[in-house]
Structures are given as structure tokens and as C-alpha cells.
């Protein structure tokens, strides 16, 4: 089998099974494990999968720039965000992470909701500027352009002084083995800090993020209180997520 054929097959198996185990896959094809590992390294370099110990997982599609991500699964994001907005109760203090799904959540907050929204996303702050009864606190710092959020020491210092009820986390992938992940180490650290300052962490995940992984861990599944997903996802797919701890809300 040619290298290009193996790589195509690897991507097909990842799409079908959600993971590749290098040793067993090599045995199945009758090639060395080193050959498969080399294929995985090259595919990972091209952003086509995420290598993990012993094999690989599907890579997250949420690696495009912010403008491109706004167009991805926009109707699904709107549906999930509309439902997630109902999880916020009056007078709660809520931290909204950056990201296009959470931007949709901000757009769908009820006009009668009285709450405090904290965010390090200028886009979300601007979206909420005209909300009649939501107080908005914007965290400053150095702008991370990929996600349009502030980061760095200034952001971390401000976040450390906050205690909030809910944190709506943004992630590029969530997988039973790797937990909630993202593509930037510093951004992952900021997200973990926010989670530590909030009583509950909620992740609203479109279908393309379920079963996908990025290089940097944000939180393991047992640190999530709630996972909001599409109602069409089969229970068999969601079983390992539910077993890990978070409540599953299907909408």
C-alpha cells in the first residue's frame, strides 16, 4: 500500500471509529508500527489529526480564523446557544468565554434577564452593550487575535479577583480521553484559571467538536458541570461523556 493510500485510510478510520491505535492498525495493514507512527506525525503536521499516546484522535475543525469560524455550523450554534442562555438565572454572575458559540449565547440572553456578565471577549461585550438589564464587566489585557479575547498577566490578575456562579467555557474539542482542549497553551491556562474562579463550568459543544481533540488540555471531563449538545447525537456516542460526570443537556 502506498503512503498516500495509508494516509487516506487513516483519515477514513478516524472518521468512522473516532481514534487510531498505531500498534493494532499496523498489524492490520501488515506494516511496521514505526511506519504508521510516521504517517501519523506527517498528518498531524498538516493539521489533519491530533496525536496522542499510542495513536491519534480526530483534530478539531475549529482552528480557522475567527471570521471563518463565525460561518461554521451557524444554525447549530444558534440553537444550542438559545437553549444554553436559559441556564442563566436572575442576578447570577456569569463569565462568558470568547468564541463564536458564546457570542451567539450573548445574543440570545432574554431581554428581561438581570445578571452580571463578565467576559474577556470584546466582541461579546459589544454585543451586550445594548442589553437593557445586564451589567457587563470587560477584562482587559493583550488581545489574542485568533480568539478575539484578552490574555496575559493583566487578564490573569483581574480574573483572580472574580468569583462567579457560572462559566461558559469555549473549547475547540472535547473527547472522553483528552477532555476539553484548545490549540493555544496560554489560552488553555487562562480558561483553567477562569474555571477555578467559578462555581460551575458549562460547555456548549457543536457536533463537530464532539470526539475531536486539540493539543492543550483545558479541563478533564469530571471538572465540567454541564455539557450542552445537539439532541440528534446518539446516546451511545455520549455515554462515555455522561459516565465521566457532567450532566448532558440535549437540545
TrEMBL record:
Spans through the membrane: none
Q: Which SUPFAM superfamilies match?
A: NagB/RpiA/CoA transferase-like (SSF100950), Winged helix' DNA-binding domain (SSF46785)
Q: Which keywords does UniProt give here?
A: DNA-binding, Repressor, Transcription, Transcription regulation
At the top level of its lineage, which domain of life is listed? Bacteria
> SMART domains in the record, alphabetically?
DeoRC, HTH_DEOR
A Pfam family reported for this protein in Swiss-Prot or TrEMBL: DeoRC
Query: What are the HTH deoR-type domain coordinates in residue numbering?
Result: 3-58
Cell inner membrane as a keyword?
A: no
Show the PROSITE patterns listed in the entry. HTH_DEOR_1, HTH_DEOR_2
Record-linked PANTHER family: GLYCEROL-3-PHOSPHATE REGULON REPRESSOR (PTHR30363:SF4), HTH-TYPE TRANSCRIPTIONAL REGULATOR SRLR-RELATED (PTHR30363)
Return the protein name: DeoR/GlpR transcriptional regulator
Organism annotation: Agrobacterium cavarae
Amino acid at each position: 500500500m502506498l503512503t498516500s493510500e495509508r494516509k487516506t485510510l487513516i483519515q477514513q478510520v478516524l472518521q468512522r471509529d473516532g481514534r487510531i491505535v498505531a500498534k493494532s492498525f499496523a498489524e492490520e495493514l501488515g506494516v511496521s508500527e514505526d511506519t504508521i507512527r510516521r504517517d501519523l506525525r506527517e498528518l498531524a503536521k498538516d493539521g489533519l489529526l491530533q496525536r496522542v499516546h499510542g495513536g491519534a484522535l480526530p483534530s478539531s475543525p475549529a482552528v480557522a480564523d475567527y471570521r471563518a469560524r463565525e460561518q461554521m455550523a451557524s444554525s447549530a450554534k444558534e440553537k444550542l446557544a438559545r437553549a444554553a442562555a436559559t441556564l442563566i438565572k436572575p442576578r447570577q454572575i456569569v463569565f462568558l468565554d470568547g468564541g463564536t458559540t458564546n457570542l451567539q449565547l450573548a445574543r440570545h440572553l432574554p431581554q428581561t434577564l438581570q445578571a452580571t456578565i463578565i467576559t474577556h471577549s470584546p466582541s461579546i461585550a459589544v454585543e451586550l452593550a445594548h442589553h437593557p438589564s445586564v451589567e457587563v464587566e470587560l477584562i482587559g489585557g493583550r488581545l489574542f487575535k485568533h480568539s478575539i479575547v484578552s490574555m496575559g498577566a493583566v487578564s490573569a490578575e483581574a480574573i483572580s479577583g472574580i468569583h462567579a456562579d457560572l462559566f461558559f467555557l469555549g473549547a475547540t474539542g472535547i473527547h472522553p480521553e483528552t477532555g476539553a482542549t484548545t490549540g493555544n497553551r496560554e489560552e488553555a491556562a487562562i480558561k483553567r484559571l477562569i474555571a477555578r474562579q467559578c462555581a460551575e463550568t458549562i460547555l456548549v459543544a457543536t457536533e463537530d467538536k464532539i470526539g475531536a481533540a486539540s493539543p492543550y488540555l483545558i479541563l478533564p471531563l469530571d471538572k465540567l458541570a454541564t455539557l450542552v449538545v445537539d439532541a440528534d447525537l446518539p446516546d451511545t456516542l455520549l455515554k462515555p461523556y455522561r459516565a465521566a460526570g457532567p450532566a448532558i443537556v440535549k437540545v
